[in-house]
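Per your request, structure below.
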């Protein structure tokens, strides 16, 4: 039961990051490596703000703004400087490592003592229950805001650019601006997740962004395997389930005594399996179709 509740609490916070990655991964068809830097950026900004006396809500929102700024940099390099999207993300991620160290002043900033965070503003049972409730409220606000935005004229234009950039440009949509907006929202949400993770863990660390993109993609793929052909809002909800399932798998693996040093390798192998499942399913469907066709031919010959 403890493993389940812990997986739900962390899965909710991770799902915010996964939703952010989903925006660039599925709408723009880009695996944005900026996520590896914007996640600890949100944690670093929030930790610095909290330790200097800023309110928890203000520090959390500031973390989101910092992530959006990182997305702006990657989007600008991709659209205006015509640097390949993968390389743009790597460049921003690399630069953010130094930025994060500069903001924190050290590799690790503890959030202990009298420092109030967004989870200590209310008390609902134990700390895990509080994390689940507060995280769910923030997640609901995020999903509602995204659904509303991506159904506005600007949001629909951004989705159109992802579907067919040339056709969108022919209809007068500024594709570059729409991409930059998606980059900013995406990395803002990723940084928001990092901010919340730092507050629930009680520290911000320079290395907490390692493997971020793998975790997010795994949650997205799990969600897409479980349920398909959903609306935009429904897909965002299933990503929550994907993040919780992924976190539960990791918790069970650790509970079974797997060496923590092998955890990153396990992440990579598991993601490779999840990414290959759609192809396997396609091959199985084709094989079954061939078998049905052969049966029909045999019946016809008789």
């Amino acid at each position: 039961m403890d493993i389940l509740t812990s997986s739900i609490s962390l899965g909710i916070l991770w799902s915010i990051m996964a939703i952010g990655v989903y925006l660039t991964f599925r709408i723009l068809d880009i695996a944005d490596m900026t996520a590896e830097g914007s996640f600890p950026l949100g944690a670093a900004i929030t930790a610095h703000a909290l330790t200097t006396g800023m309110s928890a809500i203000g520090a959390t929102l500031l973390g989101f703004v910092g992530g959006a700024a990182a997305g702006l940099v990657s989007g600008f390099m991709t659209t205006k400087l015509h640097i390949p999207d993968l390389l743009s993300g790597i460049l921003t991620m690399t630069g953010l490592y130094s930025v994060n160290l500069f903001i924190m002043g050290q590799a690790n900033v503890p959030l202990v003592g009298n420092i109030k965070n967004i989870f200590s503003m209310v008390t609902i049972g134990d700390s895990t229950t509080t994390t689940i409730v507060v995280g769910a409220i923030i997640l609901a606000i995020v999903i509602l805001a995204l659904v509303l935005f991506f159904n506005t004229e600007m949001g629909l234009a951004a989705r159109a650019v992802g579907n067919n950039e040339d056709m969108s440009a022919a209809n007068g949509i500024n594709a570059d601006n729409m991409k930059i907006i998606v980059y900013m929202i995406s990395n803002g949400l990723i940084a928001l997740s990092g901010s919340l993770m730092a507050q629930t863990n009680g520290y911000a660390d320079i290395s907490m962004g390692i493997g971020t993109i793998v975790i997010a993609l795994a949650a997205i793929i799990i969600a897409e395997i479980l349920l398909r052909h959903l609306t935009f809002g429904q897909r965002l909800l299933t990503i929550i389930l994907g993040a919780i399932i992924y976190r539960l798998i990791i918790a069970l693996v650790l509970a079974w005594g797997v060496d923590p040093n092998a955890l990153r390798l396990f992440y990579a192998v598991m993601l490779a399996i999840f990414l290959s499942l759609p192809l396997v399913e396609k091959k199985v469907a084709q094989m079954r179709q061939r078998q049905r066709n052969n049966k029909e031919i045999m019946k016809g010959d008789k």
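The radius of gyration is 21 Å.

Regards,
D.
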